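Fig. S4 source data, part A: sequence.
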Amino acid sequence: MSEENTQNPAAGSNGKAPRREMAIQKIYLKDASFEAPSTPEIFRGKWQPSINVDLDTRTTPMDDSVHEVVLRLTITAKQDDKTAFLVEITQAGIFSIKGAEKAELGPILGSYCPATLFPFARQVVNELVTQGGFPQLLLSPVNFDALYAEQVRRRKQEQGGEAGERPASEQ
């Protein structure tokens, strides 16, 4: 026996959920900076740097279904107490997302889109570092799903502390 769900307001006229569509409209390098303040002296010693990678994402809606997603990377390499190089990359993309519910949009924009941008940013970082005279720098993969989940957890905590700490009347 077959039943159609006619009470689902998100369903289309045929009773099925609307089709989700996502398209990459453009991927582009928004900004790039390379500094090597300790050259040429830094090239004299044995190369054993400490590398620090910071990343951040930002999303800006352009209209109802189009969003700009920006992935910002800052990579600092230090040799002893000197900065060998500093790379700052802002990689961006314009993504069209149709048919996604609000609950689905967060993970798409906060995880899937930055993960799509990361290989492009990684390539730019590597090219800048090698053009600066340093050995190849291949950034490790990033788990954007885990980073997004942590960001959501922190946001919930900042918006009122842990749910268990407040009386139910205040929740």
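Fig. S4 source data, part B ends here. The chain has a mean pLDDT of 87.
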